[in-house]
Design goal:
The chain is mainly beta. The protein has 8 helices and 32 strands. The strands form 6 sheets. Strands 11, 12, 13, 15, 17, 18 and 20 form a 7-stranded mixed sheet that branches. β2 and β3 form a beta hairpin. Bound molecules: CU-O-CU linkage and copper (II) ion (CU) (2 copies). One copper (II) ion binds next to β6.
């Protein structure tokens, strides 16, 4: 492998070396790419054998566009972090904070107890380390990790602090699923940034940005702009992670071929679901298969952000200011490279995901209203002056908002105000039983931990992990600017 092709420059490359087994097959620059840059995967740390994993949150410089580096941060490298492959059982994690400020590291999608969850209460001071033991007892899935330090989450993620986790039981071959990292099994972190003319990343802190969340005009996949994914003439698996602060993608393939959803955040579905469009809001993950056995190159596209365009609060005003991406835009070019090994050439008929019936008459019900504007005024006046709230109260580290009984299932009714909000629950999985008064969208059929609430969603949430009041679980909007400014609550499970 060519060193300079490693993700994000020499500083990162030096730190990665041994772990980087990605990109083992095929020529460095296949002719199918026609001279364009090949999309690289994050380096892979396979902890399924070693049972241990070490990460350092650090700052650095990264050339995101053109030759001009911009200050960034990442784990073990200058932007983003390695993909961690974990298997059921115990993994000794070590997180070293080499940032100039406190951070935390949250395992979004791992079902672990509150003490190991890495929420806002598990602060790692600069120079310190945190070493939780992660005991994984959940189906295979795609999860991710990112900072969760109260009031600085949006900024730290924007700097580049985020990485992907594969929970793997090593049985994907038996499932008939593509499983070769970076060859037919692609890990894709979707993000957007604003880069100025000199390639410097900017973060706007105006009221408008706070209201909608920070979006940018440059689309990054694994920290790269305009790179092309090379895949075999076969079925390819895309593990999509929306790591953006606020942007909602409506993904589709330019020539109209379907995306076959095989896994939602909580693991595999019982069978693939064919979708013409997949909406992915911040924090959500989806695994889709795309059939490229016809050898044609395609483009993964996105429709306009449903929170930003004409539907957005300031839609009209933004249009006048000409800041709206009011049309579809390319997310990733996919080129078929016939020199890569074609392993899987047919879709699996069934998968081993299970969706047990959770509904029953005597479930405890809770309601959460994700509040902006008038609904949040109470919070603004009473609490910390934060503009957003849940049920009229802005987040408070010292206040527990709900106490859930361990081992139970509850019915949570979540309502959005003014915008669509991606609602996320820590330490638990849920099924979506209704959306906006109707049946859930097909893409929300599986186990999830984050769901885009358009108006109202009804969830059945299963609580199997404990969280005491010293280290409660969070529930929040995953538009990070909303989360940081009050649209978050916390709950215990005991
Ligand atoms: Cu991905 Cu509470 O976060
Ligand atoms: Cu989470
Ligand atoms: Cu929100």
């Amino acid at each position: 492998m060519n060193r300079q092709e490693l993700l994000l420059g020499t500083a990162g490359a030096a730190a990665l070396s041994a772990a980087s087994l990605f990109y083992a097959g095929g020529a460095a620059q296949p002719p199918a790419l026609q001279g364009r840059r090949r999309l690289l995967m994050p380096p892979l740390i396979d902890a399924t054998e070693t049972g241990r994993c070490s990460l350092t949150a650090q700052t650095g410089m990264t050339a995101l566009r053109g030759g001009q580096p911009t200050p960034t941060a990442g784990y073990n490298q200058s932007f983003l972090g390695p993909t961690l492959r974990l298997s059921p059982g115990s993994t000794a994690m070590r997180l070293h904070n080499a940032l100039p400020e406190p951070t935390t590291t949250h395992w979004h999608g791992l079902l672990v107890p509150g003490e190991s969850d890495g929420g806002p209460h598990q602060v790692i001071a600069p120079g310190d380390a945190w070493a939780p033991e992660l005991v994984i007892d959940q189906p295979p899935c795609t999860a991710w990790y990112h900072p969760h330090i109260h009031r600085r989450t949006a900024l730290q993620v924007h700097w580049g602090l985020a990485g992907v986790i594969h929970v793997s039981d090593g049985r994907d071959d038996a499932r008939g699923l593509p499983s070769r990292y970076g060859i037919d099994d692609l890990t894709l972190v979707l993000q957007d940034r604003s880069l100025d003319a000199s390639g410097r990343m900017t973060y706007d802190t105006s009221m408008m940005t706070l209201m909608h969340g920070a979006t940018g005009e440059d689309i990054l996949v694994n920290g790269q702009i305009g790179a092309v994914a090379a895949v075999p003439k076969a079925i390819a698996r895309l593990r999509l992670v929306n790591g953006s602060n606020a942007r909602i993608y409506s993904l589709f393939v330019d020539d109209g071929r379907p995306l076959h959803l095989v896994a939602s955040e909580g693991g595999f579905l019982p069978a693939p679901t064919s979708l013409s469009e997949l909406v992915l809001s911040p924090g959500e993950r989806a695994e889709v298969l795309i059939d490229l056995t016809d050898g044609r190159n395609v483009q993964l596209m996105s429709g306009p952000d449903t929170n930003q365009g004409p539907n957005g609060m300031f839609g009209r005003m933004q249009r006048v200011l000409n800041r709206v991406i009011d049309r579809s835009f390319p997310v990733l070019s996919v080129a078929v490279d016939e020199t890569l090994p074609a392993r899987i050439t047919a879709l699996p008929e069934a998968l081993d995901g299970s969706l047990p019936e959770l509904a029953s008459d005597n479930l405890a019900t809770r309601r959460f209203s994700l509040d902006m504007g008038p609904q949040a005024m109470m919070g603004m006046m009473n609490d910390n002056g934060d503009p957003f709230a849940i049920n009229g109260r802005a987040f408070d580290m010292r206040r527990i908002d709900a106490a859930v009984k361990l081992g139970t299932t509850e019915r949570w009714v979540v309502e959005s105000t003014m915008l669509q909000h991606p609602f996320h629950v820590h330490g638990a999985s849920f099924q979506v039983v209704s959306e906006d008064g109707g049946r859930p969208r097909p893409q929300n059929a599986g186990w999830k931990d984050t769901v885009l609430v358009r108006q109202r969603a009804e969830l059945l949430v299963r609580f199997k992990q404990p969280a005491p009041k010293e280290s409660p679980f969070m529930l929040h909007c995953h538009i990070l600017e909303h989360e940081d400014s009050g649209m978050m609550g916390q709950f215990t499970v005991s």
